[in-house]
Amino acid sequence: MANVLDEFKEVHVENKVDASKKLRVGIIGTGWIADAHIASYMKQPDVEIVAGADLIPGKAAAFFKKHGLKNVKCDYKDADDMLADKSLKLDAVSVCTYNRQHAPCAIAALNAGVHVLLEKPFTVTTEEAVEVMRAEKKSGKVLSIGFQPRLDDNMKMVKKIVESGVLGKIYYIQTGGGRRRGIPTPFGTTFIEDKTAGLGALADIGCYSLDMVLNAIGYPKPLTVSGYKSAYFGKDPNYCGYVAQGHPEYAKVFGVDDFAAAFVRLEGGIILDFRIAWAMNIDTPGDTIILGDKGGLRIPSTECWNGSIGGDLTIYHEVAGNQVETKIPMIPEKPGAPSNFDKKIRTFLDACKNGTPAPVPSSQILYNQAILYSIARSSDLGREVEVEIPEL
């Protein structure tokens, strides 16, 4: 089967960065995810970090001091205040706020004529995502959503296999993932309170799981969703994470989902069977499988959703009337190569400088967001719902 494997070999091309033109970058929201953004920006030879804003007084100043950056202007009361400062001559911003501030901050930045790298999830509701896209369209600026797992070589391989046609017509997908115990509270309650997060495991890691398969099949439009969500672990003061951290009171403010599942109908007659968890009494809800009329693909699950795959890919198909399995070896990380997060930052910067399309376009992630929000809405209503996407 060597000739089959050769079809899926990756060719890596190193792109040189023109450091003669610096991009002036700001950070909106200086919580823990901003640490990853700034660390990556500091590796880029064509970036100058000039400003930052946070709703908590003094937090932005402490953030930049921690990273050893001086002369970064951060005496702003909020993002609007920073964006109004024309002396900054901002080119781009990373929006690293909690979920419910994604839409207002992204819209404000786009309206100010600034390119935006918006952390995942896109927004909380579908309507918010559409409002951001309206501002994007009006501004003509780059809006890229922070889905770095799709830049992983193994994720690219999944897409390449599907696009090769070896699976034939896709008709059923099972996907998901999660953690046996892993409600994200080490940094406080931002992820678990409804007033800040809006969605829980659905938005935090469910968006990645959906993107893995939807990107591979070309992001067909979602039509209907029958969804379920629960919070049995998050609302339990005896949850092991709360006990270990000494915060049983977190159970009282937990207002999002820690588990969700759905049955989604997509255009093209494709069925998507989905489940995701921050906490569950099993090691994995199962491998991802993509079934086509010519072959099937198994994508091994990971112990804790980490944006890649858990082992070699397997294609199940027929050759000369025989049922066979073809292994596609997992692509290992190359020592010294950029991380997926660094690739996310670099591809965003390249789009800003070159006027090329966003590496993770809002037009795709709108469907991702619509599914997430429809799962929550369907669960609340206790019935199947049609996926509603307002016109741009």
Brief rundown of the structure:
The protein has 392 residues and is of the alpha/beta class.
Q: Can you describe what's shown?
A:
The chain is of the alpha/beta class and 392 residues long. It has 2 domains: 23-149 and 341-360, NAD(P)-binding Rossmann-like Domain (Rossmann fold), CATH 3.40.50.720; 152-334 and 368-379, Dihydrodipicolinate Reductase, domain 2 (2-Layer Sandwich). 32% of the residues lie in helices and 22% in strands. It is built from 12 helices and 14 strands. The protein has helices at residues 2-6, 32-41, 59-66, 79-83, 102-111, 126-139, 153-164, 201-216, 240-245, 250-253, 340-354, 362-381; strands at residues 23-28, 47-53, 92-95, 115-119, 143-146, 170-178, 222-230, 259-266, 270-277, 288-292, 295-299, 313-319, 322-328, 385-386. It has a 9-stranded mixed beta sheet with strand order 13-12-11-10-6-9-8-7-14, covered by helices on one side. Strands 2-1-3-4-5 form a 5-stranded parallel beta sheet, with helices on both faces. α2 (32-41) crosses α11 (340-354), α5 (102-111) packs parallel to α6 and α6 runs antiparallel to α12. The radius of gyration is 21 Å and the shape is globular. The model has no long low-confidence stretch (mean pLDDT 95).
How is the secondary structure organized here?
Blueprint: H1 2-6, E1 23-28, H2 32-41, E2 47-53, H3 59-66, H4 79-83, E3 92-95, H5 102-111, E4 115-119, H6 126-139, E5 143-146, H7 153-164, E6 170-178, H8 201-216, E7 222-230, H9 240-245, H10 250-253, E8 259-266, E9 270-277, E10 288-292, E11 295-299, E12 313-319, E13 322-328, H11 340-354, H12 362-381, E14 385-386
Parallel strand pairs: 1-2, 1-3, 3-4, 4-5, 6-9
Antiparallel strand pairs: 6-10, 7-8, 7-14, 8-9, 10-11, 11-12, 12-13
Helix pairs in contact: 2-11, 5-6, 6-12, 7-8, 8-12
